[in-house]
């Protein structure tokens, strides 16, 4: 029995069936001798609750009808899929062009989503309750500006933990590069330190062994136990279970291995971690960063970030209020311990809870901001690809209009035809999505290294389930959008007109639509290429900005005593020996001791100058202590006076070299040579206070950029013999690129190091790289996507012009027959291409100008409305239009008039 008409039809059918069976029962009973009344009563007794039978039968019939409809739908869908696949196989060139075009657009989106997902959306692996875990941020006012930091000291952490009630777990966390291993196998690797509450926040179980406990993280010493990362356990210990109980040298101490973390676990670090040490107690007790007891009672050593988990009923606002009260207590305690702290009323300290992911918080990196722009760029590439596919589908629809008309005339419904065409479009899009995922996985490694800084996440595959779902959704949307126009134009066509039409019928309307799509492609391509040009110029500017030293030829050598006891005299001698040994290495020009490292480490002190009420109000003045070889080694130019010399010993008059910016700030319109600068206002001896000695300015050096490539900072230089001679490391200047000499220098200097101590050798280009990465990312990715958009737009333009030339064969034949020269035909076709592209170029330039204010903060020393870039892009697009029009134009110029005039 087949039921139609929905629930009403089913109910009528059930009633009919019940009535039929009731009457048949009565008939049988009467045939056996019962009267009609007795037969009716007996039948009613046998049937019992008719309504219940009616509902049961209705339910059965509805289920049967549903199965039949689903089976019918699946049968029709399978037929549509087979029909679409068969049609696409008959047009391999068209199929490959569409799939490849969509694959490029979807591949760009797959790459960018996989990266932005890790930067901004995906919580750390194994985090149990991401919605309740926060990073804590601390703010204070300085010179009218509020400074926000996520770092604080251990004593401040204890104050916050003791004076808050909104959290049920809280841990300090810190990742440091420490020496791991011993002997020649020693390498600096990322090691994490955290409190015992760290494990409460993660749903992570040790692969073997256990995690450290609160008892093993109790000041002042704690227990020296370590949990290895899964990757380190596999690569260094072969995944052996007997690793438990073995010892491993990490930093200046030896630790006992008690467990192995699960695969992919990095806690709150965005970098791969090789080991998790038992909290911060034993790490600080081991002397990392010079921390010494009573480090746990000292408000200095601000190396830790704090992560906390809110209690279930506590919201972010309530947690922030509770945290701010505790942080203000900690700040008052710090003022009582440390002199020189900004007064509470001026500092206005506050704290707040923020996202766990750094790039979603108030301290988001510039790279994350560029990455979010690149997501928009990838979407634009996909739009251009979809427009290109729409043009291809329109051309295919024109060729198939008679076929479609015949099928409609033979009785196929327009809705079924629409379903078939949509199915074909979606199949193409899904094939493009599959290819896009392959592109993302194949080409994504370089992008991951560029954007994720070779972190642990960069090693993970981009094509995980989240990315696959997003790409599949984008593929379906792109397929539907690109196929809607040709589908509706085809299914709404006049059947009679289509059956009688010649090859040129209906071309005009569809050509206008295809031209509109080309205008959109050209406009979006201009936007992307302008962005690429601006970032390329920014990268050029930042790479050629004068830093005040020659970074390409410099290595920074940092000695690490690793527990070897040396007094200040021995440390000075070690650094002198390292500099002397470096000068003997082939390929090394010079070497110098130094105290600080640009972009890594700065020192500053409060200065006092006669006639200036507060030097601090004029800015922060950073210092460098150096040997006489410093300026030659660094390549820093002296503008006036002299540098540090061998005569500037500890017992000689104290001298200082200042940067040009420092001289300008402190002594505007004056000669700085001979000026007196004091490091403290007075010195006290035997109860008698006298003015502090002068550091006399003897030279002016060029400005240096130490904390940002954007602006130089006021800076000064002191002699290592006169200021902190035991600290710092060695700068080594090489012939050519310093990176090529780094390993050779390390091996040579390691021989000088006593005992288990070691040297870390780092090219200065590596130190500076994070500060220029955002411009490098922007230049590289905008250029890649811009070129991809340009290729797609040029292919789309070529296909449209080539198709139009084919449609105008008759017209071209007439023109040639009437005396038109080949050059006239070529000029006609090229002008037609320019007429299509020029409006898009102008529109794109306008969009780029409007969007310039948002991209301006991401550029370096270039205007977002830079005329050379915009003009160059516009000329490039017009040149591409001419090039794309040339081949069809040449084909049109060679049309045979006789053949053209005989054509339809």
User: How many helical elements?
Assistant: 24
Major β-sheet profile: 12 strands, mixed
Residue share in helices?
A: 40-55%
Q: Gyration radius, to the nearest Å?
A: 38 Å
Provide the number of structural domains: 4
| Low-pLDDT windows of residues | 1-6, 285-291, 454-461, 502-510
Topology, number of strands = 25
> What is the average per-residue confidence, as pLDDT, rounded to a whole number?
81
Beta-strand proportion: 15-25%
Structural class: alpha+beta
Shape: globular
How far is the first residue's CA from the last residue's CA? 55 Å
Which keywords apply here?
12-stranded mixed beta sheet; 52% helix; 7-stranded mixed beta sheet; 24 helices; 904 residues
Describe the secondary-structure layout.
Blueprint: H1 6-31, H2 36-47, H3 50-89, H4 92-121, E1 133-142, E2 145-149, E3 151-152, H5 154-162, E4 167-180, E5 187-194, E6 208-209, E7 225-228, H6 230-237, E8 247-250, E9 253-260, E10 275-277, H7 281-285, E11 304-310, H8 316-337, H9 344-347, E12 350-354, H10 366-399, H11 401-409, H12 414-452, H13 465-491, H14 495-500, H15 507-544, E13 554-560, H16 568-583, E14 588-594, E15 603-604, E16 622-626, H17 630-634, E17 638-641, E18 655-659, H18 660-666, E19 676-677, E20 682-685, E21 688-691, E22 695-701, E23 715-719, E24 729-734, H19 742-750, E25 758-763, H20 764-807, H21 809-817, H22 822-855, H23 867-893, H24 897-902
Parallel strand pairs: 5-10, 7-9, 16-23, 18-22
Antiparallel strand pairs: 1-2, 1-11, 1-12, 3-11, 4-5, 4-11, 6-9, 7-10, 8-9, 13-24, 13-25, 14-24, 15-16, 17-22, 18-23, 19-22, 20-21
């Amino acid at each position: 029995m087949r039921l139609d008409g929905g629930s009403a039809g089913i109910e009528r059918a059930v009633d009919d069936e019940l009535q039929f069976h009731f009457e048949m029962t009565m008939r049988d009973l009467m045939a056996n001798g019962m009267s009609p009344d007795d037969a009716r009563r007996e039948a009613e007794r046998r049937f019992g609750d008719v309504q219940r039978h009616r509902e049961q039968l209705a339910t059965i019939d509805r289920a049967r009808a549903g199965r039949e409809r689903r089976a019918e739908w699946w049968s029709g869908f399978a037929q549509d899929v087979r029909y679409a696949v068969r049609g696409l196989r008959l047009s391999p060139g068209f199929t490959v062009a569409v799939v490849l075009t969509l694959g490029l657009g979807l591949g760009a989106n797959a790459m960018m989503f996989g990266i932005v997902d890790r930067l901004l959306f995906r919580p750390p692996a194994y985090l149990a309750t991401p919605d309740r875990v926060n990073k804590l941020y601390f703010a204070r006012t300085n010179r009218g500006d509020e400074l926000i930091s996520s770092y604080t000291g251990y004593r401040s952490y204890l104050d916050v933990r003791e004076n808050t009630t909104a959290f049920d777990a809280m841990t300090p966390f810190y990742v440091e590069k420490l020496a791991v291993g011993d002997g020649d196998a020693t390498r600096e690797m990322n090691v994490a330190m955290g409190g015992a509450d760290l494990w409460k926040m993660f749903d992570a179980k040790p692969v073997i062994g256990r995690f450290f406990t609160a008892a093993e993280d109790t000041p002042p010493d704690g227990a020296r136990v370590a949990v290895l990362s899964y990757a380190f356990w596999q690569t260094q210990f072969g995944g052996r279970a007997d690793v438990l109980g073995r010892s491993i040298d990490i930093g200046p101490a030896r630790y006992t291995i008690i467990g192995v973390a699960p695969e992919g676990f990095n806690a709150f670090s965005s970098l791969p971690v090789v080991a998790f040490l038992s909290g911060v107690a034993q790490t600080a007790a081991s002397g990392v960063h010079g921390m010494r007891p009573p480090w746990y009672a000292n408000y200095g050593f601000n190396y830790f970030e704090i992560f906390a988990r809110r209690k279930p009923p506590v919201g972010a606002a309530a947690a922030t209020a509770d945290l701010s009260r505790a942080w203000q207590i900690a700040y008052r305690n710090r003022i009582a311990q440390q002199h020189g702290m900004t007064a509470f009323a001026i500092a206005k300290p506050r704290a707040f809870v923020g996202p766990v992911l750094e790039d979603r918080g108030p301290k988001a990196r510039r790279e994350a901001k560029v990455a979010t722009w690149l997501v928009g760029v990838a979407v634009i590439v996909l739009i251009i690809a979809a427009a290109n596919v729409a043009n291809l589908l329109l051309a295919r629809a024109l060729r198939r209009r008679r076929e479609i008309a015949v099928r409609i005339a033979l009785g196929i419904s327009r809705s079924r035809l629409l379903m078939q065409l949509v199915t074909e479009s979606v199949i193409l899009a899904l094939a493009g999505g599959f290819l896009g995922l392959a592109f993302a996985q194949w080409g994504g490694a370089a992008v991951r290294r560029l954007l994720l800084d070779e972190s642990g996440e960069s090693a993970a595959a981009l094509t995980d389930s989240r990315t696959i779902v997003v790409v599949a959704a984008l593929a379906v949307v792109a397929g539907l959008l690109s196929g809607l126009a040709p589908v509706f134009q085809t299914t709404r066509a006049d059947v009679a007109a289509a059956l009688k039409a010649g090859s040129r019928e209906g071309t005009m309307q569809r050509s206008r639509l295809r031209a509109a799509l080309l205008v959109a492609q050209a406009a979006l391509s201009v936007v992307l290429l302008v962005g690429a040009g601006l970032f390329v110029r920014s990268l050029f500017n930042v790479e050629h900005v004068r830093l005040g030293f020659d970074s390409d030829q410099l290595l920074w050598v940092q000695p690490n005593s690793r527990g070897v006891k040396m007094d200040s005299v021995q440390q000075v001698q070690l650094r002198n020996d390292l500099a002397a040994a470096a000068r003997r290495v082939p390929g090394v020009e010079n070497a110098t001791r130094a105290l600080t490292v640009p972009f890594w480490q700065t020192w500053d002190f409060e200065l006092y100058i006669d006639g200036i009420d507060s030097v601090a109000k004029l800015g922060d003045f950073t210092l460098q202590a150096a040997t006489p070889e410093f300026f030659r080694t660094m390549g820093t130019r002296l503008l006036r006076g002299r540098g540090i010399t061998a005569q500037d010993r500890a017992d000689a008059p104290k001298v200082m070299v200042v940067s040009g910016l420092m001289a300008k700030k402190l002594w505007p319109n004056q000669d700085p040579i001979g000026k007196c600068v004091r490091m403290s206002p007075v010195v006290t001896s035997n109860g008698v206070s006298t003015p502090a000695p002068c550091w006399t300015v003897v030279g002016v050096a060029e400005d240096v950029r130490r904390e940002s490539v954007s602006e130089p900072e006021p800076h000064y230089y002191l002699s290592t013999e006169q200021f902190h001679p035991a600290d710092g490391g060695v700068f080594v200047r090489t012939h050519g690129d310093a990176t090529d000499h780094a390993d050779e220098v390390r091996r040579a200097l390691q021989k000088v190091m006593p005992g288990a101590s070691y040297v870390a050798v780092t090219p200065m280009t590596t130190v500076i790289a994070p500060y220029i990465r955002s411009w490098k990312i922007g230049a590289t990715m905008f250029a890649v996507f811009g070129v991809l958009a340009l290729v797609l737009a040029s292919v789309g333009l070529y296909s449209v012009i080539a198709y139009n030339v084919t449609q105008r064969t008759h017209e071209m034949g007439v023109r040639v027959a009437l005396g038109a020269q080949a050059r006239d035909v070529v000029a006609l076709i090229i002008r037609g291409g320019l007429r299509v592209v020029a409006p898009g170029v102008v529109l794109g330039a306008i969009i780029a100008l409007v969007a310039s204010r948002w991209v301006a903060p991401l550029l370096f020393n270039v205007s977002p409305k830079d005329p050379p870039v915009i003009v160059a892009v516009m000329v490039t697009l017009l040149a591409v239009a001419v090039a794309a029009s040339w081949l069809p134009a040449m084909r049109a110029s060679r049309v045979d008039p006789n053949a053209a005039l005989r054509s339809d």
